[in-house]
Amino acid sequence: MTDAWVALEPGCDPGERLGALRRAYDSFASGGRIERPVRPVVADSWRRSARARVSPEGPARVELADDDLGTYRDGHPLARAMPVVRELTGAYARDGEHLVAVCDAQGRLLWVEGDAASRRRAGRMNFVPGARWAESSVGTNAPGTALALDRPVQVFAAEHFLRPAHAWTCAAAPLHDPRTGRLLGAVDITGGDGLAHPHSLAFVQAVARAAESHLALCAPPPPSDAPVASLAALGRDEALLVLRGTGVRLSRRHSEILVLLARRPEGLTGEELLCELYEDASVTPVTLRAELSRLRRLLGPDLLRSRPYRLTAPVEADFAAVARRLGSGAVAAAMAAYAGPLLPGSRAPAVVRLRRRLEDELRAAVVARADPGLLADWAYSPWGEDDLVAWQALASVATVRQRPVVHARVRELDAELGNGGTFATGLQRRRG
Fold this sequence. Notes:
It contains 18 helices and 13 strands. Strand 8 and strand 9 form a beta hairpin. It has a five-stranded antiparallel β-sheet with strand order 3-2-7-6-5, with helices on both faces. The chain is an alpha+beta fold and 432 residues long. Pfam families: GAF. GO terms for molecular function: DNA binding.
């Protein structure tokens, strides 16, 4: 196959491929075996779906309805892109009897538009506004898998993990904030077998690029004291600094330095930085000065000053945004912005403290909120999959259909912690 992200290679017969995929799907469902012609991207997604205990029978869960849905999507950043999405896809959807869907970063469908008959058919499996189509909730599907992988993907017929979705083919591409690069959601085209063509994936990618360009153009001019840079350090060992529109991937040590300086705009002395960065007390100031000199060459002398070491312009850090949202009680917004633990591989003492504090505060807020969707986001995430307290909280609010899977996971974690020590020891081990 020329492109692993396209469902059918040129010249492939859709009917023949469909029969082979159905047999492969049944083989996986009955025995966990992956057989030809399942693509690697689909096989990996099936395995993730199985680990998340997704039910193949569905349907998706509707999490936002009526006023809650309207208020949420009206305030969502992607609302500004919808006129462009509709202009580019309207005729395509009507003429082809397709659907166009836009979801948020958690896989919740915010808009589902297009052919009326197709909308009614899709509604039978809850492919409707407000329903969660994240891969961790309903398994392999184009918008959910595009979000999980942060790249465009096409899913054909029985490649879907949900059996009710086998009658559909879809192609989706992620949508990002053009200023910060943050994942905002995805745009999806859903229809029949006719969409199993490379052109549909190319088309949805073009729609995503146009939507992102529109967001960049319609963004209000930044105020004079607005950040000139953004720092993404959640869920990654090497932070990404976007400076004047250009992204720079930082080394691990430079990532730690930028995190600490972004957190302390008043600056840090050399001695303070040494204590906050290095576990080894024998590290000398010369080593630190060499790191800072290399970082200054990378950033430019106008951004990084010394005596004390400080950033001379505001830097918008993703971990600070999560903390602000938590402080204001916006738990769902904080969870949406949380891409994972802060610099998870870092052993710098100050970074470790900040990482644990942020994770503990967000986890406590999610558990206290007792919202099934937020708890599922946490429990099924890489950082929450072994969190017994979160799974217990999810078990207490799970739906009847979810309870067997969730309770089974709670029992597994109970057994693991019972064999390996107390819950506190297990939590400490999870944090590393």
